[in-house]
Structure formats: structure tokens, C-alpha cells
Amino acid sequence: MRLAQRMSRLGTETAFEVLARAKQLEKEGKKIVHLEIGEPDFDTPRNITEAAIKAMKEGWTHYGPSAGQQDVREVIAKYISDTRKIKVDPDEVVVTPGAKPIMFFVILALVNEEDEVIYPNPGFPIYESVIDFIGAKPVPIQLREENDFRLDVKELKKLVTSKTRLIIINSPQNPTGGILTLDDLKAIAEIAISKDIYVLSDEIYSRIIYEGEHHSIASLPDMKERTIILDGLSKTYAMTGWRLGYGVMNKTLAPHIARLMTNCNSCTASFTQRAAIEAITGDQSDADKMVQEFRRRRDVIVKGLNDIPKLSCLTPKGAFYVFPNVKKIGWDTKKLADTILSEAGVAVLSGTAFGKFGEGYLRLSYANSVENINKALEMIKKFLADL
Ligand SMILES: Cc1ncc(COP(=O)(O)O)c(C=O)c1O
Prior knowledge:
The protein has helices at 14-27, 46-57, 70-84, 100-110, 125-133, 153-159, 182-195, 254-264, 270-281, 285-306, 333-344, 370-385; strands at 33-34, 93-96, 116-121, 137-142, 164-170, 198-202, 227-232, 245-248, 321-322, 346-347, 349-350, 362-365. The protein is α/β, with parallel strands linked by helices. β3 (116-121), α5 (125-133) and β4 form a beta-alpha-beta unit.
């Protein structure tokens, strides 16, 4: 089959491939502990599910506005205004099926083929995939363990050229769990303002944070106009399968992102949007409990990994991933991840699934029970001891 050339530049998210391999092994009778996929293992809180059922029964089963229902955009605008301490209007919000389309749409809308985009590496693989896909130049900035997996602002300055159109940041970060400090954000903002660059700020894990509070670059002076905040309900409310995300951006850009929605999806599911009102404005105790449970699991997994010879692991400050250093084992990391799955029965991702600077690291998601985490730790320990 002759595919269009651009398809050769489209990447993927390895987590879904490893999940498929793990499921196949399970079919063949093998027991697998799943630490590969980035989704909360909790059920969506009941009040949200019930709001969706009620909405379906009331007839919220038709097309709606491409940018999202007006009252949903109002609720999101108020939530972002309150949490980021900036004034956001409803017409600065575009609702999308999951937060991922915001990456695609923003890059499509802002970046020309000859432009450059700076993005974190290791980082969420879809950034690089989409930059490549549209024919722009991906410029990775390495996140180093020695720097708590925060980007180095001096390095960022060196990577910026007259062609840099967009900087992508992600805090709390997937896959490292790292967090950018307020000082980091101020320095990035200074660069963005002085060089007239847009910032796509992926804040999907803003509510899953264990120390201090979340800071958004959009809250800094003169940054709201040049920042696109990406956020959504997938992680905070265990709603990955619902597909409900959004972007917050200036009024000039928003209609163009909505036009991309019209071309791609028409609109986000109507009853899902009604449930989003309940999620954001209703009882938050289930969402808060999930974070407490993630913290407990984080402490178990970090201690367990550091107790295994040849492994070392920083304590992540947010999200639900650990990124242990496996360099002392001396294996190619992809081979190590594949063998841990086939031999030890633990599905993990190679750090290289998040870019070339992920070599030497594994990513484990701790969105699984403490019991399963302990089982996985034991299996990995035994596997490495037998090498
Ligand atoms: C950093 C990051 N951004 C965005 C997303 C996508 O979120 P959604 O499922 O709402 O599209 C993910 C999901 O894994 C993520 O890790």
C-alpha cells in the first residue's frame, strides 16, 4: 500500500504497544503486572458518572458547538481563573475530546514547516511525533537526572534561534515526575517574551502533586497572551476513557483551534461535557483521595526500587510515574524493558519510548495497587539477581 509520505514521520505512544504485547502474553497464560500505562486505576467518581447518565437521559446526545458548550467553557474559565490566578474568559477556552488534540491543533495552527519547536526529552512522545509530522524541526531539550529532571534554562537559551516558534513545557512531567520551579518558569517566560515565542504548557498533571503547589507559566506577567494551557479531566478524575480535555489560549487563537475541531471532531461528546460540569464544580473528595493514595504508592515504589542493587530512583514530586536509572545494569534499555516483560512478567516502558535522552532509564507507572507494586518489585529484583 502506498501511504502519503508524511505518514513516515508520524510517531506513536509505545505504552499502547507494550499494553498490547502484555495482553497477548496474558492470553497465553502468563501473569503480568501492568506498570506501563499512564492511567489511574480508580473508577471515575460516582457523582460524575451519574451526571453523564442523567445528561444522556435528558437528551444531551446531539452535536454541540465546536469550541464546547457555553456553560462548560464558563466553568472551565472560572476554574482556570481561580487556580492560575489570571482572568480567563469563556471564549478563551476550547473543549476537546481528551487533552491530546490540543497538542496537535496548537502545533498545526502556529508552526510552519521551516519553524523550530523546543520540547522536553525525555518527554511525552506525541510532541516530537506531531512536530515531525507537520514537517517542522523538533529541537529536544534534555532533562537531566542531576537537575531533578527539570530543563536547564541556560541550555534553553542556547537552543533558541530566530526560527523558534514554540516552546513546549510539561510540569508535573511525564515520564519523570519532575516539576519546574517558579524560578524556572520565570526564566522561560523571559526568553519567550524577549524572543516572541509561544509556550504550550502541558498541565495535565497539575492536580497530582505531592509537594508545594502547581505554578503555571500563564500566571506570570505578560505570559497569558502567549501561553496555551493544556489541561483536562483524564488524570485528575480517572476519566481517561471519557475523552474530555481543553486548551486555554488567547481570544485570537481560540477560534482557529475551534475551526480545527470543526474539521476533525465537530465537537466533544455532549453528555461528557455535562459530566465535566459536575467533575469540576462538584465534590472533590474522591479526586483528593486518589492523590493521597498515589503518594503512598510513590513512597512504596521509590523505596522498593532503591533497595534493588544496580537501580537508583529519584523521588518524583508529581504525576504517577517513576523514572529509575538502570545504567549500572549495562543493557540496552529497550531490550531490558522487553525482557523484564517477557521474563519477569512486569510491563514497564523503556525510557527511550520518551525520546533518545531516555536511554538508561525505565518508566514505571504506579497507577496500580500497593499489592501489585510490591509483587512487581519482587519480580524485577529476582530477575536482576538471576542475570
Ligand atoms: C503529559 C501528557 N499530556 C497529555 C496527555 C493526554 O491526556 P488525554 O488522555 O486527556 O488526551 C497525557 C496522557 O498520558 C500526558 O501524559
